[in-house]
């Protein structure tokens, strides 16, 4: 495929995912609606994504990557373990509050996405644990894994049902996670 054709295909894919996200949030997600909004044939969409589930899977993947990139960037801005977790949890809470699609994925709001929340939680856990192991190699690997799992699950829980302001939630989750990450002997 030529470079210009590759760019055009990538742009179509990006545009299709942007419009699909809008349609999903508006409750009108379907291939005919998507094709009409993009001004392309349904066959073009089927060639790119396979089917409606292919579009949904691509949306989940993109939303997950963007979400995790934000969390990892927040972790990376801090050198202190506690401050890193406060920043990461706060970033996750802000992103979910501002992103209707992400919030729907995390709350299991739409069946078309399947186990979107599970995929996001597992990916967040794995990526956070990997980052922590690289940044703080002196921490016990098992404790880091448990800390990352706890952070992911607590953060999603607070996205679904926030009981306090985001800053307070971030501080509380970070405190618990750091205690777990440091392990029993540290």
Automatic annotation (TrEMBL):
It comes from the Bacteria. Transmembrane segments: none annotated. InterPro entries: AlkX_C (IPR040611), Homeodomain-like_sf (IPR009057), HTH_TetR (IPR001647). Keywords: DNA-binding, Transcription, Transcription regulation. The keyword Transcription applies. Gene3D superfamilies: Tetracycline Repressor, domain 2 (1.10.357.10). Residues 30-49 bind DNA. Residues 6-67 form the HTH tetR-type domain. This is TetR/AcrR family transcriptional regulator. It comes from Pseudonocardia xishanensis.
